[in-house]
Amino acid sequence: MNFSTLESSYLAYAHYNFENTSLELARCQWPNYDDQHYLRCCKWSPDGTCLLTIVRGAGMHVFELPTDIYTGDTMLTSRPVNPLNPAVSVPESGLIYDYCWYPGMNSANPATCCWAASGHEGPIHLWDAFTGDLRCTYRGYNNVDELEAAISVTFSADGQNIFCGYKKNVKIFSTGRPGREYVEYPTQYPASCLVASLAQPGVVAIGTWKNTIELVSQSDGSFRHLCKLTGHKGGITTMAFSLDGTRLYSGARKDNEIICWDLRVPGRPLFCLTRQCNTNQKISIDLSRDGKWLVSGGTDGKVQVWDVSQNVAPTVHMELPLHNDCCNGVSLHPYRPVLATASGQHHTLDPLHHTRNVMSYENALVMWWVGQQQEDPDLLATIIKAASNT
């Protein structure tokens, strides 16, 4: 993989401009297979050079950011849409539950370029982002010494540990020591979602299938319960810490509310936001690095954008109808005004005719420009000239 980055870009936040309509930059489309190969969210790498997505039944795929998007403050509206082709593909068999990038990933150092993934009836795998090779595995076992699959997975903020959610506990592996050595933190319900705080190393939020969120502090192999948050109607599927660690945003399955928790006064929501989420499927949220913009997908195919920089409940800043099917994944680029989205969902069979209740699906990975836009002067001159000749 050829990663060319500008080191100075890491020092600044992306200048998102959610005043204009989004401009499509690149797209990859999967066929409408009978066995439903829909996407399961998408995630930008920490250094912003590539995008990772999971396709149900069709493995894991890494896509590079088009080279012309690395620089420039504006984008011409006449820019053609790039076809996206995977730089690395891993034909992982079975259903993949969760995945995450190594937080110290830097394309200039190939050793850091990897991601972890957990799947059905298997251990946690660590995959090489350059070659697609399997580097190592982390194996969790239940109380009868049977290999158990992790439901959720995330790295600690410093990348030293991997937190894995299971049905009865959270297991913590040392990243540098693959195998079956781990410590456990018992949970009352299956840990369906995990996220680590960047501002407070060792603090991890554990979301469960029973609609509860528990904050714990982990250091030196010991755990300390901090608080428990309740308020969602369904099991927790997505969470995001603010950069300063004072807020936690959470969403749940079949729950139209995104709750913002003020962790300085835990237990009481700061405000709630509304989106369309009428499915058990994960509909992800993402927060910009500067903490200003919160974005969420929806089962209606729309991406909603809120300015959450204040301490009051914001109204929807912009609603972007980007997809014709469920938009299950959103990911804001770390230093460029680019939004990645993933679409697709499971469509049930008609029990009488054994056919899907829809005729077309949109299983797509798309990159959108959400920064400043500029009309192409040459194209504009051509349009004016053609209009004058008619």
From TrEMBL:
PROSITE patterns: WD_REPEATS_1, WD_REPEATS_2, WD_REPEATS_REGION. Gene3D superfamilies: YVTN repeat-like/Quinoprotein amine dehydrogenase. GO terms for molecular function: RNA binding. WD repeats lie at residues 229-264, 284-316. Belongs to the TCAB1 family. Keywords: Repeat, WD repeat. InterPro entries: SWT21/TCAB1_mRNA_Telomere, WD40/YVTN_repeat-like_dom_sf, WD40_repeat_CS, WD40_repeat_dom_sf, WD40_rpt. GO terms for cellular component: Cajal body. This is WD repeat-containing protein 79. One of its GO terms (biological process) is Cajal body organization.
